[in-house]
Amino acid sequence: MTEDADVTNDAERRNAAANAQWGGRFAAGPSVIMQEINASIGFDQKLWRQDIRGSLAHAAMLAKIGLISAEDEQAIRTGLADIAGEIEAGRFPFAVELEDIHMNIEARLTERIGEAGKRLHTARSRNDQVATDFRLWVRDAIDGLSAQITDVMLALAERAAAYAGDVMPGFTHLQTAQPVTFGHHLLAYVEMLDRDRGRLADCRKRLNVNPLGSAALAGTSFPIDRHMTAAALGFDGPTANSLDAVSDRDFALEFLSAAAISAMHLSRFAEEIVIWCSAPYRFIRLSDAFTTGSSIMPQKRNPDAAELVRAKTGRITGSLVGLLTVMKGLPLAYAKDMQEDKEPVFDAAEAWALSLAAIAGMTRDMTPVLERMRALAGSGFSTATDLADWLVRVLKLPFREAHHVTGRLVAMAEQRAVDLADLSLAEMRSVEAGITDDVFSVLTVDASVASRTSFGGTAPVNVAREAARWCAALQA
Ligand code: ARG
Predict the structure, then answer these.
(1) CB atoms within 10 A of CB 55
(2) Residues sharing a CB contact under 8 Å with residue 284, sequence separation 6 or more, in sequence order
(3) Is the CB of 73 under 6 A from ligand 1?
(4) Is 214 a known active-site residue?
(5) Each residue of 113-148: pLDDT tens digit?
(6) Which of 38, 126, 242, 323 maximizes ligand 1 atoms within 8 Å of its Cβ, making it the mutation to test the pocket?
(7) H-helix or E-strand containing 185?
(8) Would you say residue 60 has pLDDT above 50?
(9) Do the beta carbons of residue 138 and residue 345 sit within 8 Å?
């Protein structure tokens, strides 16, 4: 398909095009500026497949109710198939004078098959046509993106299964908090992405109704069968109110909302990848396939793909805010403002797809530096909570008191510049006389994660089970 329309701008062609479409009323064509601000063919060419699908369904319905003859329908079918071939081969003469994809295809059809092409626009308007095409396009995008999200989830779940028992520091406030497993951390993103998939599925459900046949805004006097076109286009049924149908862009906004939330998730993971790759952390390594070098600093290996995923969030969120702003002041029904709905959706869909592909790639590419993660997992008094829990469980101290005792032991260790496990039993007893040797059994990082067996906790048995459950569900 040609993205760059081959366009000519002479006044004669502008006049001729205007004449063919609404020449009954208009004596002259539009000015160059009018044409430039009005035309959408430069970007709505992307809708050509959906436009042809919609026209085929409409023509079949017109033939069934006897508004056009069977021969006309056959001619329309053949003509549209030929046009699809032309567009696919990059031979279609896109004309900016013909404004948008709907008029480009219709004009070409009439050029090829004559009279029958002129009957196709009976009982429809570009207003219901564009609403239909755009819904179909967003629906296709949803299906593709859902499959991509599933792939990222699978990549994460497979790596989580491999590292279900490998410890890393868990953070809150980016301060060492408690040890967790690397697998547990990766599965957190699987949960987020599963909600993203759910949002897309939810958007698809509400999107899947057919505006075709709402005509310009009021419906039509022709005895059309909107259930028939709905079924042909895979919609669950026709929209119920013609005014709403031609002016509703909720499906695009819901899609962009889902995109913005998902992009935010991907950006958080991307940010972690950037942090993990940095020299002070060194939790993971990315290969040459997902890094770039520096033109001046030979030692550099930069996580550019992760940084760009983080940045794409900006344009995706911008698309949502942009379209919300376009829509917020529009009285019913259609207004030309709504032509500005497509570019943000196309742009966000592309950025989202690319981000998902990059995250899938980096997830499969990354090599965790397990000994480094383990070393840092034990630093920063990360098992202090385990010590407090031991005081509660074994000595029956109230938690608040146990917290206080542990705080004093941490202060003591900090002052001596050692870890909690390096304090002697005598030192511990100087703070709380009841402490016994048994306390040391809970101060290792492995004991810490192994003890977190509560539902949803980081214990390796939990993580291995969850990772296996996800892998099975995602491969099904
Ligand atoms: N290109 C237009 C759009 O994208 C198609 C609908 C035009 N309708 C109209 N009444 N001018 O919205």
Answers:
(1) 26
(2) 273, 276, 277, 366, 367, 368, 369
(3) no
(4) no
(5) 999 999 999 999 999 999 999 999 999 999 999 999
(6) 126
(7) helix 182-207
(8) yes
(9) yes
